[in-house]
Specification:
about 500 residues, about 0% strand, transport
């Protein structure tokens, strides 16, 4: 009789525990959706402008060099502020930083959309860069905190990486579609409804974080040094083609001096912005170095590949965007369906190497694309190879990088990882586009016809990009090699 009388209590407790666990699980995955939505906006915006550049130039009267500032005005504050706002997110609360960044990014997007002058558009793009940095810098730190268990974390990172990777190519498609079917203003105005919904969801769904407090790590002199150094570095990279070699070298030396000053400051500061012990982590340092080369390869492919389709194969803006769509579809499906499973079985190190092999092979094949080539034979197969490689490599690399940071450094580690993405993308764009243009000009100056010379310039860029990928593969094989079986399990 006693057992019967007491039996409802354990069953009720079990149901309550089960309901509570389900609620927490739902809340975490709902939070992941919100984080992905915010990230998708910033990634879309980084790519959506590319195809619309000629229309913006015609409408607002930009010169050739001046048009580059539509991109540069976004990249410089975005890349320069990631590390700082990542650390501030640890101090004031990552949710606060994320939601404030969403609000600023959305407002700046509207300003871009209604811009009627060059100065207004460039200023609004700079504000977008600030908002994008605030939103992006803290996301990975929030993600690894939400999903501490290795297998769930691998799944969450796979979803997040799929959204980010697909967003890049989706931005190219939307840029072409909106510009051709409506006008270039809508590539920015489309962020308004997305931003409002994402902000409201973030306020409701994301768990509040108090943060450590500004008094515990607000190294403002260090912040000024590293932000100036990063902004100058991005400026040097993206503007290298518009300056002579001497000016570029002097600016690069100044950036190096600022970085040196920052390192000295961090070694002596009582509450450093960036604890130098972070770089003692082989995984964190190695993963960031590999990422610079891998992103340089992929970003260079996306930019030069779009030019190859338009200027060599004669594709329109909409056709170019559509031609890239198989890549995000493949990346999304592979990351969502296979990434976490393969990382759980083989370990992130082996999956990363396999992905880098595929990226290298795809770039090597693309470097053979001729002037009379076809999309189906010469562009699509290499693109799908690189998509499969990126789908394998990016989640594995992200997991390795974030596993090298302590929880209290999650925001700054996330900011650092995102910073190397921007540096890698800027480096790939600057180096590969400059090489392609200079080689084409040299061939045309020597009497070659424009179309074959243009194709040869792009082939040179693809060959150099394949060397980037090969170097990333070699570096990952040596530096990120796991020493124990449990390391391979993430």
């Amino acid at each position: 009789m006693t057992a019967i009388a007491e039996s409802p209590t354990p069953r009720h407790t079990s149901r309550s525990t089960s309901t509570s666990t389900s609620s927490r699980t739902y809340s975490r995955w709902a939070s992941l959706v919100v984080l992905c939505a915010g990230t998708l906006m910033t990634i879309l915006d980084g790519n959506i402008v590319t195809v619309a550049m000629p229309a913006i130039q015609n409408d607002l009267g930009f010169s050739g060099p001046g048009l580059a500032w539509v991109v540069n005005a976004y990249l410089i504050p975005f890349g320069g502020l990631l590390l700082l706002v990542g650390r501030l997110g640890d101090l004031v609360g990552r949710k606060r930083m994320f939601t404030a960044g969403l609000a600023l990014f959305t407002a700046a997007s509207v300003l871009c959309g209604v811009a009627g002058s060059q100065a207004t558009l460039i200023a609004a793009r700079a504000l977008q860069g600030v908002g994008g940095a605030m939103t992006s810098a803290v996301v990975l730190g929030m993600l690894v905190t939400l999903f501490p268990e290795p297998r769930e974390q691998a799944r969450a990172i796979a979803v997040f990486s799929a959204v980010g990777a697909a967003g890049g190519a989706l931005g190219t498609f939307l840029g072409g579609a909106l510009t051709q079917l409506v006008n270039w203003h809508w590539i920015f105005l489309i962020n308004l409804p997305i931003g409002i919904v994402a902000w409201l969801a973030a306020v409701r769904v994301l768990a509040p974080e108090k943060g450590a407090g500004l008094g515990k790590g607000a190294d403002y002199p260090g912040a000024a040094l590293v932000t100036s150094a990063l902004m100058l570095t991005v400026y040097v990279i993206v503007g290298a083609g518009d300056r002579d070699g001497t000016a570029t070298a002097l600016l690069a030396l100044l950036a190096a001096a600022l970085f040196s000053g920052f390192v000295l400051r961090q070694a002596r500061a009582a509450r450093p912005l960036l604890r130098l012990r972070l770089f003692g982590s082989r995984l964190l340092s190695g993963a960031n170095a590999v990422q610079v080369l891998m992103i340089a390869t992929m970003f260079g492919f996306q930019f030069i590949g779009a030019l190859y389709l338009q200027r060599v194969l004669g594709y329109s803006e909409l056709a170019t965007g559509t031609a890239f769509l198989p890549a995000p579809v493949a990346i999304g499906l592979l990351m969502l369906l296979l990434s976490a499973r393969t990382i759980g079985r083989f370990g992130p190190y082996r999956v990363l190497l396999a992905g880098l092999v595929l990226i290298t092979a795809g770039m090597a094949l693309l470097s053979r694309a001729p002037a009379d080539g076809s999309y189906a034979a010469d562009f699509l197969p290499p693109m799908l190879l690189m998509a499969a490689g990126f789908a394998a490599a990016m989640p594995a690399l992200t997991g390795l990088a974030m596993s090298g940071a302590r929880e209290e450094d999650g925001g700054v580690a996330s900011g650092l990882f995102n910073t190397t993405q921007v540096v890698g993308g800027s480096l790939g764009l600057a180096v590969l586009s400059t090489l392609a243009a200079s080689h084409t000009d040299g061939l045309v100056g020597g009497g070659a016809e424009l179309l074959p010379a243009t194709a040869e310039g792009y082939r040179l860029a693809f060959r150099v990009a394949s060397l980037f990928a090969l170097t990333a593969l070699a570096l990952a094989a040596v530096v990120l090699r796991t020493r124990r079986p449990e390391d391979d399990e993430g």
